[in-house]
Amino acid sequence: MPPSSSSRRHTLTHGISTPNFLAELPPQYTVDTESPQNPVARRRLSHPPRYSNATALELQRQGSSSGQDSTCQHQHEFHIMNTNRSHAWTTLRIFSRNAGSTPQFFGRDFISGSVELDLEKPQKINSITLYLRGRIITSSLEEGSYTFLDHAVDIWNKDVGDPRAAHAGGKRFDEKLDGKYRWPFNFAFPSEFTIPSHGGQISHSFQTPQTFHERGLNATLEYELFLHINHGMFRGSSKLHVGVAYVPNITPAPSSPLRRRAYLEGVSLSGPGEDYAGWYSLHPVILQGEMSGRSGVEFRCILSLANPLTYTRGTVLPCFMNIEANDQKVLDTFANAKIIRVCLKRRISYTRNASLVLARFKANSRGKGSSLRQDEMTEIVEDVGQAVWWVPSNAAFYGPNVRCLEGEIHLPKNLYPSCMVPFLIVEYYVALSIDISDIFRFTSVGSHDSPIISQPVTIASFHGEGPLPVAFTAPPGKRASGLSSHRRAQSNTDVFPATLGPIRG
């Protein structure tokens, strides 16, 4: 019999409408007009978020244990056609969250659907298997592709018996199939995958990463459902490939009680001096240098980030800066939002030879060690956000020799979440730098054009418990891709910015 061709058609079953995953990320809330007394810090929300609204996304994306949750009611159909493409003799029906052309699944979702046959004449079929596969592609060469996830689901095979029999497990079925058949399936999208190491005696698990496609990078991470119909040795197998998208379940821990209350009431956040549990303060940075012909100029700054250090994309990352100096002129010079630069940076590391990296990982008895970076790694470092600053309303509380800046970094909703797998590493860190080269010459702690201090953070894919973070400033106007135009490739010998430990009190 001549080989048949495959096609795809999509049918939408109207249930609870679920938009695509970029639009479904947490929304931004609007604010009222600025007050003349304090243009930013005392803003109140015109529509303060309610707790039920804050947890709606969490409830919406969770699948039920049976996999029949109402969030996965968009139907997709894909077909294998006969030779003249006049009849679909195989239909793969899938239910997912996405109404578009690509089925999409979130962490803890079930993949449900059915395999249906409509045979116009008898066919020899030995088995039907559905595979969920994930692979990393870094080049068109054979070593540039590696399948890290290969999950098989047996739909039917002749050893099970007659597919039309009332009970499975009957006599082996050696006849040809003819007419119409339907096999439902329902299985969880694996949230982890394993890699054996040390001769296969030890297995290490990693969180299944999100689908990754980004312009300008020679790395793609994709998933597909692969339907394989085995006809026996005298006829080639019938195959159907369907690309699917996946978003892992990464959520932040709950914020402090004071911060949750501020979000619910739509008021400004309490600073590190008031909300001890709500902030993570980095080690103080003491800078010395020359300014306006004066030597021995010194000032001290402490950068604090919202605690916990995990932030949902599409929201904001709150920041707080304390700047101390005995000289008022020095203090006024440095307590300037144009001078203090706090950025969210992203580093992506990937290999051009994924299979070699995993082979070394397997051979390493320590497992998750330096083997992750033994092969040549291409690294990209870029700015993905910059803090916007303002003077908090209670600045006088901190004393005459202290200046305070409150701020936030807007997180683009399409940021790729943090990822740590052997072949793709996506890391984020907040970096503090000082840009005053025209009026100040450093004599300690690096230079003005490199980070003085940095702190690794985690970017989450979804919001967790409690109200969503509230933005007090408008996001930057130009954020088409959420990334800066400046990118630089690095070798794997570059040093990740050093991180000093936190302080308390």
UniProtKB/TrEMBL annotation:
Domain Arrestin-like N-terminal: residue ranges:
105-202
Pfam family, any one: Arrestin_N
Q: Which domain of life is it from?
A: Eukaryota
Checking InterPro entries in the record gives: Arrestin-like_C, Arrestin-like_N
Q: Where is this region: Disordered?
A: 1-50
Q: What is this protein called?
A: Arrestin-like N-terminal domain-containing protein
Origin organism lineage? Eukaryota, Fungi, Dikarya, Basidiomycota, Agaricomycotina
